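Hey,
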Amino acid sequence: MMKAHLNPFQAAPKAMQAMLALSDHVQTCGLDHTILELVKTRASQINGCAYCLHMHTKDARAMGETEMRLYLLSAWRESPLYNERERAALAWTEALTTLDGKSVSESEYRAMAAQFTPEEQVQLTLAITVINSWNRINVGFHTIHPVK
């Protein structure tokens, strides 16, 4: 059984409070919560963060997200269940989550910019940055998700 390496909230409470403050900002930035939860879930799938997947699929369901859309999220490009704005957010999420030393293409940026205002573009990018940070914290320290 996997064991946590450490509890980052105990080890560095001020740093983790700063992360929580940034997360709180993202939650209240004005972006649709459905998009935020899809973005958080998709990035967490890519990064293999079980803790975040547990949290964000549960949160998405509580907000009315369907099981089918959650099941098909990793194959969103092949599914008609996601609208154009969601698709743009998911493509942007994948582009920024899987940088791997490459830059984001102009077509990826234009597709996202066509759906989001400049302010929303910054908020969406920040949301993706925050979930990627949480993924790295939780994967790195082997944070264990609740089992119920």
